[in-house]
Amino acid sequence: MIKKLGVLLSATPREFESNGVLNPAVIKIGNRIHLFYRAVSNNNISTIGYCQLASPTKILQRSGSPILIPESSYESHGIEDPRIVRIGGIFYLTYTAYNGINALGAMATSQDLKHWKKSGIIAPTITLDEFRNWACEGYGNLQDLVFIENQDTQGLPPEQKRFIWDKNLILFPRKINSQYYFLHRIKPDIQIVSTHFHPAQIPPEFWRNYFNDFNHHQLIKPRYNHESSYVGGGCPPIETPDGWLLIYHAAYYSQNGYVYSACAALLDLNNPKIEIARLPYPLFSPDKDWEMNGVVNNVCFPTGAIVENHLLYIFYGAADTCIAVAEVKMPALLSELQKHKTPTH
Known about the structure:
By secondary structure, the chain is mostly beta strands. 10% of the residues lie in helices and 45% in strands. Strands 14, 15, 16, 17 and 18 form a five-stranded antiparallel β-sheet that branches. Strands 1-21-20-19 form a four-stranded antiparallel β-sheet. The chain starts with a strand and ends in a 7-residue tail after the last helix.
């Protein structure tokens, strides 16, 4: 069902992207495809590079310098793994801000894809102790807490407080029932948020109520062997007649380390908190040299997708080293998903 089209973008001698390019945000405007990718320097600091495509596999132009760089303390060690949507004429670029201790969802906005205004961190900033106090009763399985990173909070000054890692923050491309919807990931599951608040203006009280009922916000939980370690968001959801198509990533631990695959699910159009179908096997997994060998071996990490002429093009990071493209016929994928409806309880 999947056709891999090969490597699209690789590292260059330019310092900002000399150690790898990966995990791009992708959006098509008119007849141009805009690709915003994570570029990694030799000192392991990530910035956002830019490339324009004439087609899913043809590079038109590529910027010689990053378009977004770390500017504030919350992103001092890198801007990672962008995703992009357009809502009401505004482009929203979400990314993981890393300061060497915390990895949290942040956002920047633009009206022209050239000039960007950063909104700061929009993911919840809660410590492990707060998470235990607020979420454990509703979370159900306390064993899941072992997947949470950065747990040691002792001896840190307040400005270096460690928060629960919250990555893969991805907006839906439109409001649904007058609310913003977005995905985020606190291991091992994908969570979903719906709110009347603008994503950059969510108050602390909202998050406290959210975590007090945390179990009800779990959207995708590991179910199959290829998801056994954890799952996480991938591409922004794509609206189809059958539901919101969600391309996400999943990881399982093997004797050679973690293996990351691209996966597919369908969410209800009017209530995306409901999963209606999911493939019981990966959409695609590492089996090419550029996916199996690199900075991190055995990684297919989807972050951007477009639809052209009934073909879904998925852009993904391969082995944390380069950017590749895969193609699948949308009718075939949707038909296959309909064969694997999610059981209702």
